[in-house]
Write a structure and sequence with these properties.
The protein has 3 domains: 48 residues, Double Stranded RNA Binding Domain (2-Layer Sandwich), CATH 3.30.160; 78 residues; 180 residues, Intergrase catalytic core (hpI Integrase, Chain A). It is mainly α. The chain starts with 17 loop residues before the first strand and ends in a 19-residue tail after the last helix. β4 and β5 form a beta hairpin. α8 crosses α13 and α14 packs across α15. The longest helix has 20 residues. The strands form 2 sheets. It has a 3-stranded antiparallel beta sheet, covered by helices on one side.
Length: 380
C-alpha cells in the first residue's frame, strides 16, 4: 500500500489516521475516508487509534482481498472506483471517440499510479501531491477529470467529499503555438522533401476546413463529380444532439485536389492514402486499410515536412511552430479575406457557435495601431 499523508509538526507524534479536532480528536478510517470524533483525553484517543489501525491494517493488504473475503464486497480501492467510473459514467456521455480515447489513457495511468490505494487514503493532500507532478495545462486537464471521478464517487456513496475539487485551481498557460502564414505553407508545398500525398492532404485541409481525423477517413465514395459535391459527416459532431452532415459544393481548387486524389493509382477507399515502405502485420491490422493514413501519422509527417522545408525555422521553439491542426485556422482566415461570411465558414467548419469560428480566424495578421483623436483643453 502507498504510505498515508505525512504528519505535520502538530501531529507528528500521533498514530496514523488520528488528528486533532479542537480540544479533542478525530479518527479517519483509511479504507472509507470517513471521520469519527473521539471525545476522549489524548492518551485514550491514541490507544483507540492504534487498536483501530491494527484491526484495519490486514484488511488493507493484498489490495483488500481479505476485506472482500470477510464482507463479500470488493474493497473500495481507487482501481475499483476507476472501473466503475469507466463502465457506469463514461457510456452515458456524448463524447467524441478521440476524447474517450484520451480519457481512457488517463484512467489507465491512474490505475497504475494509484489503483492499490483505498478511496479513503486519497484525501486532499494526497490528491494535491499527485496533481503537482503535472505542468500547468496538463495539471488543469488531470484535475478536471479527477473532479468528475470524485463527483461520481460522492454520488455513489463511495466518498464523503470531492477531494479533487478542493485542490488548487491553476490558470492554464497561454498556448505558445503560433499561426500558419501563407508563405510558410507555400514553402512546405513547394519543397521536394514533402510527399505528394501530404501535399494533397494540406491543400484538402485548407480548402475544406475539415479536421485531420476526417481528412484521413474521407472516402472516395463520398465524392460525386457529376454533381460537383463531396459529402462529410464530421466525427467530432456525431455525438451531438443534432449531428452535422455536410454536402459541400466544390470550388475549382477543391475540385482539382479531389480529382488528383481520385486519380491516385493506389487501390484505396480513401482520398488520402500512401504506399507504406514496409507492411508489418501489426501495423496493417491496426489500420482501417493498408493504404490508410492515421491521424497521428499525418501529424508526424507534417511536422517532419515542415522542418525539412525550413518553413518556420525563425520560430526557435519547435513546440511553438504551427502543426497540421492550425491549417484549419489559416484556411478559415483565407475564406474571410476573400469575403466569405463568418456564418458560411462556421457551417463549413462544423462549429456550434460563430465565436469559435472567429477565434480560429484571429491572429494571422498584425493588428494595425489605431489612434483615437482626443483633446486636452484643461486651463490652469
Amino acid at each position: 500500500m502507498n504510505p498515508p499523508r505525512p504528519r505535520t509538526g502538530k501531529n507528528r507524534n500521533l498514530p496514523e489516521n488520528l488528528y486533532p479536532n479542537g480540544k479533542y480528536w478525530q479518527y479517519r478510517n483509511p479504507i472509507t475516508g470517513k471521520k469519527t470524533s473521539i471525545n476522549k483525553p489524548m492518551a485514550e484517543a491514541i490507544k483507540l487509534a492504534k487498536l483501530a489501525n491494527a484491526k484495519l491494517a490486514p484488511l488493507m493488504s493484498d489490495d483488500g482481498a481479505l476485506l472482500q473475503l470477510l464482507t463479500g464486497e470488493q474493497a473500495p480501492t481507487i482501481k475499483r472506483l476507476l472501473e466503475r467510473f469507466e463502465s457506469e459514467w463514461l457510456p452515458g456521455r456524448k463524447l467524441a471517440d478521440s476524447t474517450l480515447k484520451e480519457i481512457r489513457i488517463k484512467l489507465e495511468r491512474y490505475r497504475a499510479d494509484l489503483g492499490a490505494r483505498m478511496i479513503g487514503q486519497l484525501d486532499v493532500l494526497a490528491m494535491a501531491e499527485y496533481l503537482d507532478q503535472f505542468s500547468n495545462n496538463a495539471y488543469t486537464k488531470h484535475r478536471g477529470l479527477w473532479i468528475q471521478i470524485y463527483a461520481f464517487a460522492v454520488a455513489k456513496g463511495l466518498a464523503e467529499r470531492n477531494c479533487a475539487e478542493l485542490t488548487l485551481q491553476k490558470q492554464e498557460a497561454d498556448k505558445v503555438r503560433q499561426r500558419h502564414t501563407v508563405e510558410g505553407v507555400q514553402k512546405i508545398l513547394d519543397a521536394d522533401t514533402t510527399p505528394t500525398w501530404l501535399k494533397r492532404a494540406i491543400r484538402l485541409a485548407l480548402l475544406s476546413l475539415q479536421r485531420r481525423e476526417d481528412l484521413v477517413t474521407w472516402e472516395r465514395a463520398d465524392v460525386d463529380m457529376s454533381r460537383n459535391v463531396i459529402r462529410v459527416s464530421p466525427g467530432k459532431t456525431e455525438n451531438y444532439d443534432t449531428p452535422i452532415h455536410l454536402e459541400i459544393e466544390m470550388g475549382a481548387d477543391l475540385r482539382a485536389v479531389v480529382q488528383e486524389c481520385l486519380k491516385e493509382p493506389i487501390a484505396s477507399p480513401y482520398l488520402i492514402c500512401y504506399r507504406p515502405k514496409a507492411r508489418k502485420r501489426e501495423q496493417i491490422e491496426a489500420k482501417l486499410h493498408w493504404s490508410a493514413v492515421t491521424d497521428d501519422y499525418l501529424t508526424k509527417e507534417f511536422r517532419k515536412a515542415r522542418d525539412l522545408a525550413k518553413a518556420y525555422d525563425h520560430i526557435e521553439n519547435p513546440k511553438a511552430r504551427p502543426t497540421m491542426h492550425e491549417l484549419r485556422a489559416l484556411g478559415s482566415w483565407l475564406y474571410e479575406q476573400q469575403g466569405f461570411s463568418t456564418e458560411y465558414v462556421q457551417v463549413l467548419m462544423g462549429h456550434a457557435t460563430p465565436d469559435m469560428t472567429a477565434y480560429y480566424q484571429e491572429g494571422h495578421e498584425q493588428k494595425e495601431v489605431i489612434y483615437q483623436h482626443v483633446q486636452a483643453g484643461l486651463k490652469l
